[in-house]
Structure formats: structure tokens, C-alpha cells
Design brief:
Layout (H helix, E strand, L loop, with lengths): L2 H29 L4 H11 L2 H21 L1 H5 L3 H7 L11 H41 L10 H14 L6 H19 L5 H62 L5 E7 L9 H7 L9 E3 L3 E2 L10 E6 L12 H9 L4 H8 L1 H8 L5 H4 L7 E2 L6 H14 L4 E2 L2 H10 L15 H6 L2 E2 L17
Antiparallel strand pairs: 1-2, 1-4, 3-5, 6-7
């Protein structure tokens, strides 16, 4: 299990514990008469769901990035610096991490409200049907027998619509009770004995319907919180942490001249075929299965939930291999060897037909195909470059730089620094040996006077 998987497992476990408490509290408020919308809103505030989501997604992002950066680079950057850089927009939505977190929290609430409301509407319908059935046949006489099959059919339909929120045993009991009422209704006459048996069956049915609707509503809430809402939260954590790993990977290997290419590796949990299978298994550039030149690699992740990753390919591994940029032809050669199922998974049903007929190229129809085959810039690149530049600029200074020296210079030149954070870039080596600079502004290489400059 790699670091990303460990972080996601921890996230899922934490959400499971949080979700149980949330479910119980929402149910408690609804039992007290509060609407599902108000109950969900109140509980999300009580349990600080927005802050919890922020903290746990951020933890997954930072820890995954630190692991991918390697000990040397990760040790030189604070968690806050990493998170700030990795919170900037990276996908087509143009949204920052903060905006995505806000949207996810809203989607989580909405998933719960809509799921529970849907089941409540079903319950209200079936309860009215059951009551109408009892009102028509439960007062010592038989009336409108032609309506009875319709009522029973409606109850049966409710069991089918609600089966996701009922256990197999609960479903079986209710359906058995409906069949019992129907069987007795078929032989119903205006006779006291047969009528009493029928009324007993009706009473039993009313009890079962009441019990079933209550259980269905409770199960709907549990499913909404622990599955549907969880899906939204885990999708965000998974996708953002995977992208953070990619940013860290190319920040670490992008300028390493010994690394000539990247190899796409399928995630250990890859449940269905998609474009990732082509990235991992096709020889698109003549350098080997799944190998992309550094200046022609698709971005990662390829789609939401994607857990695929890159591995470095060193120059020595490519000796004797010649790069081919005819990606269309190379892709065609691989696709022609695949089953119809895999081709359709990658190109779509209609896309596969058009590709097979020669009317379009595979890159025109491939679903989730990266819109950029080229050298990507990591969101960490500028921060690392700035850090490197500052270390180089200050490397020959002979006077120990101290914060009071910086403050003195600012005061001398009437620079207003109130409310501004500033720091002098140091690395572990320079701290050990004594980092030197000059208090003379003419000799100072660079000091940034704003937060998280490095």
C-alpha cells in the first residue's frame, strides 16, 4: 500500500466514524419533528463538517505530496507552504481547493436531503394507500371491491421502489402480508367469519406497512450519509491527493536529466477499463509499454477517482530505443488488438464504430483523453525555483543574517512592515553552518516581505 492509499484509507475510516454520529443525530432531530432539510443543516454545523472535510482532505494532499517529493525536497518545505501551492486551480473547473471543498460540503448535504426526501415521499404515498384500503374494507362491510387490486398493486410497487432501503427479510415479510390480504380478498363475501379473517389480515398489513416505512426511512438516511455523501467526500480527497502526488512527482523528476521519461502505472484498484488502460499498456511513443517522453506525457489523474501514477524511466533504460511521435498510428495498432469491450470502454460505443469505419481517429473519440500531451509544470515548481534562487543568491554572504538586521534596514528606508510576514530562506545545511549575508542593502541578494514567499 503506497502513501496515497494509506491516506485514503485513513480518510475513509475517519469518515465512517463521523458518518455514524451524524446519522444518529439527524435521526434524533427528525424523530423530534424537525424537517430533514433543517436537521441536516443543523447537524452539519454541530459536527463542523466543513472544517472536518478541509482538515482531512488537506492532510491527504500534504502527506501524499511529501512522500512523492522525497525526503530532501519535502524536508525543505513546510506543510503550510505545500498546501498553499497545491490549493491553486489545476483542472478545467478553474476552482481552488477552497471552492471545491465548499462545493463538496454542499453536495454532501444535498445528497442526504434528496435521498431521505425521496423515501419519505414514497412512504407518504403507500401510507395513504394502506389507509384508503383499510377505510374501504375495515368497517364491517365490503364496498368497492373493484378498487382493492389497485390498492394492493400500489403497495407491491412501493416494496419494489423501496427495496434498496429494506433488508431482504423485511421485504419478504411485507410482500407475504400483501399476498395474504390478496388471497383472502379473492374469496371475500358479506359474511362475518370470512370478513373477520380479512380484517385481521388488513390490520397486520397496516402494522407491517407502518414498520416498513419507518425502517425504509431510517435505512435511506443511513445510506445517504454513509454511502452517497461519503462518495462525494472521498471523490474529492482521492482526486486532489492524486493530483498532489503528480505535482510532487514532476517537481522531483522534471529537471532531473537522468530521468528521460515517465511510465504510466495503473492503480491497484482499477475496477473498469478506460483511457488509463491505454496509457499503461499501449506503446504510443515507441519507448515501451506505457512509457511517455517527459515533454509528451498526459496529465494525471486522468479522471475523477483515478489512482494511477507515474514511475521515472531513466536514460539507461531507453538505450537502443528510438522515439516515434506518430501517436495516432501507434494507438491504432494497440486498439486493433483489443476486444470490442475494451475499445468501447475507451472510445464509447458510437466512437468505436466511427473509428472502426475509419471516419475518425482514436484521439478524436477517446473518453477522458488528456487535453495536453506535453511538458507539464508542477504547481510546486515556482516555489522550489524561488527557494533555489534565494539559496544561490545568499550563498556567498559573509555577515550572519539576523531578523533584526532586516528590520533595521526596513526602518532605515521607511518600509512599512506592520502586518506583513517575512522570512529569510534557510535550508538545513545553511542552518548548521551559519548562514551569512550583509546588512548593507546594496549587498543583500533578496529578502521577500510577504507571506509564504518560499
Amino acid at each position: 500500500m503506497d502513501e496515497l492509499q494509506r491516506q485514503l484509507a485513513a480518510f475513509s475510516k475517519a469518515y465512517g466514524e463521523k458518518g455514524k454520529a451524524i446519522t444518529e443525530r439527524i435521526q434524533q432531530l427528525m424523530d423530534a419533528g424537525m424537517t430533514v432539510t433543517k436537521a441536516v443543516q443543523q447537524v452539519f454545523q454541530e459536527y463542523d463538517v466543513a472544517d472536518w472535510l478541509d482538515a482531512n482532505v488537506s492532510q491527504a494532499i500534504v502527506s501524499t505530496a511529501q512522500d512523492a517529493l522525497g525526503a530532501e525536497l519535502a524536508g525543505a518545505l513546510s506543510s503550510a507552504e505545500l498546501l498553499k501551492a497545491l490549493s491553486t486551480p489545476w483542472d478545467g473547473s478553474g476552482m481552488t481547493l477552497s471552492q471545491k471543498l465548499h462545493g463538496a460540503e454542499s453536495d454532501m448535504r444535498q445528497a442526504i436531503v434528496e435521498t431521505v426526501k425521496r423515501q419519505i415521499r414514497r412512504n407518504n404515498t403507500v401510507q395513504k394507500t394502506a389507509q384508503a384500503l383499510y377505510d374501504g374494507y375495515g368497517y364491517g362491510h365490503v364496498t368497492g371491491t373493484q378498487e382493492l387490486p389497485r390498492y394492493l398493486d400500489e403497495l407491491t410497487r412501493w416494496t419494489r421502489r423501496s427495496q434498496e432501503n429494506l433488508t431482504p427479510e423485511e421485504l419478504k415479510v411485507i410482500q407475504k402480508t400483501i399476498r395474504k390480504v390478496k388471497a383472502q380478498a379473492d374469496g371475500l363475501v358479506d359474511d362475518r367469519v370470512t370478513y373477520n379473517h380479512f380484517k385481521t389480515a388488513l390490520n397486520e398489513l397496516m402494522d407491517k406497512v407502518e414498520y416498513g416505512t419507518e425502517k425504509a426511512a431510517q435505512k435511506a438516511l443511513k445510506t445517504a450519509v454513509e454511502e452517497k455523501s461519503r462518495y462525494v467526500a472521498e471523490r474529492l480527497a482521492r482526486t486532489e491527493a492524486a493530483r498532489a502526488r503528480y505535482d510532487a512527482f514532476i517537481a522531483r523528476h522534471g529537471e532531473d536529466e537522468s530521468v528521460a521519461a515517465y511510465q504510466w502505472k495503473l492503480g491497484s484498484r482499477h475496477p473498469a477499463e478506460d483511457i488509463c488502460d491505454m496509457y499503461a499498456n499501449a506503446d504510443l511513443y515507441g519507448l515501451g509499454k506505457g512509457v511517455f517522453p517527459k515533454d509528451a506525457a498526459p496529465v494525471n489523474p486522468a479522471h475523477p477517482h483515478c489512482l494511477c501514477h507515474y514511475a521515472p524511466v531513466y536514460r539507461s533504460e531507453l538505450e537502443g530505443k528510438k522515439r516515434s511521435d506518430d501517436v495516432e498510428t501507434n494507438g491504432n495498432a494497440w486498439l486493433k488488438k483489443q476486444s470490442l469491450h475494451i475499445r468501447q470502454a475507451i472510445l464509447g460505443v458510437k466512437g468505436e464504430q466511427e473509428w472502426k469505419a475509419g471516419r475518425v481517429g482514436w484521439m478524436d473519440k477517446a473518453q477522458n483523453l488528456s487535453d495536453m500531451f506535453g511538458k507539464a509544470e508542477s504547481r510546486l515548481y515556482r516555489m522550489l525555483e524561488r527557494r533555489k534562487k534565494n539559496i544561490d543568491d545568499l550563498s556567498d554572504f559573509k555577515v550572519l543574517i539576523k531578523m533584526k538586521s532586516v528590520k533595521a534596514i526596513c526602518k532605515k528606508y521607511n518600509l512599512k512592515t506592520h502586518g506583513i510576514s517575512y522570512k529569510i530562506q534557510l535550508d538545513k545545511g545553511s542552518i548548521k553552518g551559519g548562514y551569512y549575508g550583509s546588512a548593507d542593502p546594496k549587498n543583500i541578494g533578496r529578502i521577500d516581505l510577504f507571506p509564504s514567499a518560499f
